[in-house]
Amino acid sequence: MSQITQLHLQALPDFPLVSPGDDIAALIVASLSAAEARLEPGDVLVVAQKIISKAENRYAYLNEVEPSEEAKALAAKCDKDPRQMEWVLRESREVLRQVPGVVIVEHRLGYVHANAGIDRSNILSDEDNPRLLLLPEDPDDSARRLRADLQALTSVAPYIIINDSAGRAWRNGTMGFALGTAGFAPVENRIGQTDLYGRPLEVTEVAVADELAAAASFLMGQADEAAPVVLLRGAKLSEADCGSQSLIRDRQRDLFR
């Protein structure tokens, strides 16, 4: 990747609330038009996981699940609703840590984060039958389909990042990360290149998708900002037909397990 000296990020304005079955690509095109913007080759669209999950109807209802004994035991340790913990277990490969208020799992997609990415914020919910929002079934596939739909509508195939937010092992606070990608290499391998003094880089790999996801997340916000799509220009990404799995560290190299 060539040196980048400037990036332009723009949160698309007045993006509507999303319901199951909505055409995200058409909503993005309409929002671009309202902002008097248009897609150009090389553009990146960072899209919040939540609107993808909503469009794909990834809702789960607490009254429609019977918590297992494992879910009840986990709920007691975490001070959580056993029904929510049942959904967490169904979406997870393994429970890694739990303390009151938080359970850390390996999601079935391989991501390690809190509560399997299941969320109750910024969704309408009936108090008599509360619902949760799960991650997309396959975020990389969601990204690929969105890219194809946008190309059909605009004749431009933007790079796509579906982002979410999570905490980090060494740091306080949450930040954006790439949950799904399409069209570009999410990790840039710099091993073998040289530093300023000619020394070869031995371990340097750049999580390009995560860095861009975090930048966009700053514009999206975490509360009531209602800015789920960010147009990013100037990244000069490397075209590649792969998804986000290269961002996930192998278990054998995960020092926190």
Explain what you see.
The chain has 257 residues and is α+β, with helices and mostly antiparallel strands. The chain has 6 helices and 12 strands. Strands 1-12-2-8-9 form a 5-stranded mixed β-sheet. It has a 3-stranded antiparallel β-sheet with strand order 4-5-6. A two-stranded antiparallel sheet has the order 3-7. α1 (24-34) packs across α5 and α3 packs across α4 (82-90). The protein is globular and about 55 Å long. 36% of the residues are buried. The model has no long low-confidence stretch (mean pLDDT 89).
Give the SSE string: EHEHEHHEEEEHEEEEHE
Indicate the percent of residues in helices.
25-40%
Proportion of beta-strand residues: 15-25%
Q: Mean of the pLDDT scores?
A: 89
The SS-based structural class is: alpha+beta
Q: So how many helices?
A: 6
- The geometry reads as globular
Total count of strands: 12
Main pleated sheet: 5 strands, mixed
Which features does this protein show?
three-stranded antiparallel sheet; five-stranded mixed sheet; alpha+beta; 26% helix; 257 residues
